[in-house]
Specification:
With 626 residues, this protein is an alpha+beta fold. It has 27 helices and 17 strands. Strand 6 and strand 7 form a beta hairpin. It holds the Pfam family Toprim_4.
Length: 626
């Protein structure tokens, strides 16, 4: 709907923002100045006891000094009440006593259709709840009782049951005057593509209603009673009411609980949320059958500035955490943080509550770790930094991750925190006699690193790249392990680029085969144990591949650093000084490279380079002589 010019301004002028906000907060009258329209209260968007939420009637805006929520009256209705924009405008218009502009016939038809769909969903919910009380629902009732859900819990969460009938709900809706087309449009029934009769989407399942922030039933989730069912959990499809990537299960009650000081706890599924809420953690929500989306993350932050993500302690839970890190970093900033609660022993929250009780669950939530902790663990856990290349690869990975944070202050704090952790990992350790041992130097190379054919070769960049491609071709099971690192190779040779694509996609092209034939023609590559006898070198292939990729990434980082140094120094000193500092930087990079065949990659004397660097530092060549 298009609004007349000045309509929104008229609404804001007629309705003080404090009137809208005052329905959700309790004003701190000692701090507020009512005569001037200056109001203070505890923030409704995050749990707190102090009045850090400020509302200014003269300016028409609110701002929280704690979670940094801000906006006008319309924004508040959208964020606090879960309204859409036009619904918020309608609420403001009603408050102001102004009639809403007439909608176009098309807009009115869409609104009427959504209203019809909500009515159909309410009819279906009543039918599902009734079926749970019938003889057909006895097994479902027994299952729910075994999960600790009594009658009050079933009532609170409006749990129902869909009998294993092909058209049970459809017949009920038809008898109520609901056309089949509307049932299909609501996602309650499915129509075969071949034109056959429509059938119930949910059959033989326990039913959980999904409500939006305004409390409207917009879809259902169903848990199969048959252990052999193709899908244990089934959600309704996308409809005019339901977008599963933009909603959360139990959002409305959780928002109310968070406003009273409860933490926002994000679990994986319906039963986890119900178990948490019944145990007293009422700010529990869950995504709807998918991994957390960016829209859901933003929705969480509108409820709480620091949601706690509960992760199952299994491998899948860990992978989900790592994916969430990459999504959250570009959005991170003040009032938009995450903490991660790692469930013990492969349990989920429901398991933990039943086995350890409320106390054990609270302890896990209280020990939730910040996002920076998981980022550090992802980059360091299970890895050995026994060479300069591997440590440089760590630095590069951390820098790339932190660079994605848009807020400068948050980025600076991440940088400082990760530098401290790096120092703790590599810093000198005090010996029993009080002296410092050199822990900043890498530990001795692992046996498989020393045995790598790369150590015995005068390996330039192209040869290392060739070795990576040859190992991946000989051991294709290693490709998924290094998939993201292979994508960053970007070979200059087009045939090698084609080979990279073939390895990642599992295809075979003429250019890729030509590149592999050329690589295998190199005696250094052909004679490497991981290539010449791949079946007998399975244990050494992986460390050799990782070492090669570490070296490629380290050299690339070193070249980038040198280029930046040359750019930054240009114009700051005379040509002689620029040349001397550049040479020192080159010498340092060369000295950092591990010895290969007794010398450096360019055939230069490493000791001479190191001595040149030492003299340059001693002479402080960057200082101008007087």
């Amino acid at each position: 709907m298009s609004l007349p010019p000045g309509f929104l301004d008229e609404l804001r002028n007629r309705v003080p923002i404090s009137r809208i906000v005052g329905r959700k907060v309790t004003w701190d009258l000692k701090r507020s100045n009512q005569a001037k329209g200056d109001w203070w209260a505890p923030c409704p968007f995050h749990g707190e006891k102090t009045a850090s939420f400020h509302v200014d009637d003269q300016k028409g805006f609110y701002y929280c000094f704690g979670c940094h929520a801000k906006g006008d009256a319309l924004t508040f209705l959208r964020e606090a009440e879960g309204m859409g924009f036009m619904d918020a405008v309608a609420a403001m218009a009603s408050e102001a006593g102004l009639p809403m502009p007439e909608r176009s016939p098309r807009e009115q038809a869409q609104t009427d259709r959504r209203t019809q769909l909500v009515e159909v969903m309410d009819r279906a919910l009543r039918w599902f709840r009734l079926q749970l009380q019938t003889g057909a629902g006895a097994e479902a009732r027994d299952y729910l009782a075994g999960r600790g859900l009594d009658g009050l819990a079933l009532e609170r969460f409006e749990i129902g049951f869909a009998p294993d009938l092909r058209q049970g709900l459809l017949r009920h809706l038809a008898e109520s005057g609901v056309p089949e087309k509307l049932a299909v449009e609501a996602g309650l029934a499915a129509k075969p593509d071949d034109g056959g009769a429509a059938y119930d989407r949910f059959r033989g399942r326990i039913i959980f209603p999904i409500r939006d922030a305004r409390g409207r039933c917009i879809s259902f989730g169903g848990r199969a009673m048959d252990p052999n069912a193709r899908a244990k959990y089934l959600n309704g499809p996308e409809t005019a009411l339901f977008d599963k990537g933009r909603n959360l299960f139990n959002l409305g009650p959780a928002r109310a609980a968070v406003s009273k000081g409860q933490p926002l706890v994000v679990a994986e599924g319906y039963m986890d949320v119900i178990a948490l809420a019944l145990a007293g953690f009422e700010g529990a929500v869950a995504p709807l059958g998918t991994a957390i989306t960016e829209d859901q993350l933003r929705l969480m932050w509108r409820v709480s500035p620091e949601p706690i993500i509960t992760l199952d302690g299994d491998t899948a839970g860990q992978r989900a955490a790592m994916r969430l890190i990459d999504m959250a970093l570009p959005l991170a900033g003040p009032g938009q943080a995450l903490r991660f609660a790692l469930m013990p022993g492969g349990q989920d929250p429901d398991d933990l509550i039943r086995s350890g009780g409320v106390g054990a669950t609270r302890a896990v939530l209280d020990q939730a770790q910040p996002l920076v902790e998981l980022l550090w663990r992802r980059e360091t856990e299970g890895r050995v930094f026994d060479s300069p290349e591997r440590r440089a690869a760590l630095d590069r990975a951390i820098e790339a991750a932190v660079a994605r944070i848009p807020d400068p202050a948050t980025r600076e704090h991440y940088t400082r925190e990760l530098k401290n952790r790096r120092w703790a990992l590599f810093a000198p350790a005090r010996t029993p006699k009080g002296r410092f041992a050199r822990r900043d130097a890498p530990p001795p190379p692992l046996p498989q690193t020393r045995a790598s054919a790369l150590v015995a070769l005068d390996a330039g960049d192209l040869l290392i790249e060739a070795m990576v491609l040859a190992i991946c071709a000989a051991h294709p099971h290693l490709v998924p392990l290094v998939e993201s690192r292979l994508e960053r190779l970007e070979p200059a040779d087009p045939d090698r680029a084609a080979l990279v694509h073939d390895l990642l996609a599992g295809t075979s092209s003429a250019a890729g085969r030509a590149a592999l034939d050329s690589i295998m023609g190199d005696p250094h590559v052909r004679s490497a144990p991981a290539i010449s006898r791949p079946s007998g070198a399975a244990d050494t292939a992986e460390p050799m591949l990782l070492n090669a990729l570490d070296r490629i990434e380290s050299r690339r980082a070193a070249r980038d650093e040198l280029a930046r140094a040359e750019t930054e120094i240009e114009g700051m000193a005379d040509e002689g000084l620029t040349w001397r500092v550049t040479q020192s930087a080159r010498a340092r990079i060369m000295a950092d490279q591990p010895a290969i065949g007794g010398g450096d990659d360019l055939g230069e004397d490493r000791e001479a380079l190191a001595a040149r660097l030492s003299r340059a530092l001693s002479d402080e060549i960057w200082r101008k002589r007087r």
